Amino acid sequence: MGDIYITWIGCGLDRLQWENVSAMIEEVFEATDIKITVYTL
């Protein structure tokens, strides 16, 4: 279907833990054909 390219959203100034954020992203997109690519700076 498509691709999404993101950084570690919410994990900088918001101080969220990437493990929690990535689990939420995986849950939201698990039933789709969307490929998520995560970039780090």
UniProtKB/TrEMBL annotation:
InterPro entries for the chain: ADP-ribose_metab_enzymes, Macro_dom-like
Name of protein: C6orf130 protein
Transmembrane segments: none
Signal peptide: none
Annotated gene: C6orf130
Lineage: Eukaryota, Metazoa, Chordata, Craniata, Vertebrata
